[in-house]
Amino acid sequence: MLNFKVILFIFYYRYALKITQLDNESVDESTFDQLNEAKLLRSLSSSYIIQYHDCFFENMRIFLVTEYCEDGDIGRKIREKREQKQSFDEETIFMWSQEMIFGIYFLHCHSIIHRDVKPG
Q1: 1-70 belongs to which CATH class?
Q2: pTM of the predicted model, to two decimals?
Q3: Per-residue b/e over 78-97, b at no fewer than 16 CB within 10 Å?
Q4: Domain extents for the chain?
Q5: CB 15 within 8 A of CB 34
Q6: What is the tens place of the pLDDT at every residue in 46-98?
Q7: Could you point out which of 54, 94, 117, 118 has its C-alpha 20 to 30 Å from the C-alpha of 74?
């Protein structure tokens, strides 16, 4: 499985496009479950979760179009701090934790369980 990330500029809007190249062995029922999950998330709107705009499967590739986050994800920020041999202040960690909890709470209020919480 190979992943690509692309930034799309359409008019004045920026979108992130994640392309996952699949092989014959990796296409199974869970592939289509992922597409259905992304389509469900497209109908939700919260400042605490990434906005999903579209997803589709074509030529053994999954295309996922989401909101573009100018500052990247927390995983990137963690890697940058680690490379600089620095740490985050307590206030930043608290703020990020609170935002993640609000996002998970929002999903739970819509009867959605997030099974893959990770930094990036």
Answers
A1: alpha beta
A2: 0.72
A3: eeeeeeeeeeeeeeeeeeee
A4: 1-70, 72-120
A5: no
A6: 999 888 888 888 888 888 888 888 888 888 899 999 999 999 999 999 999 99
A7: 54
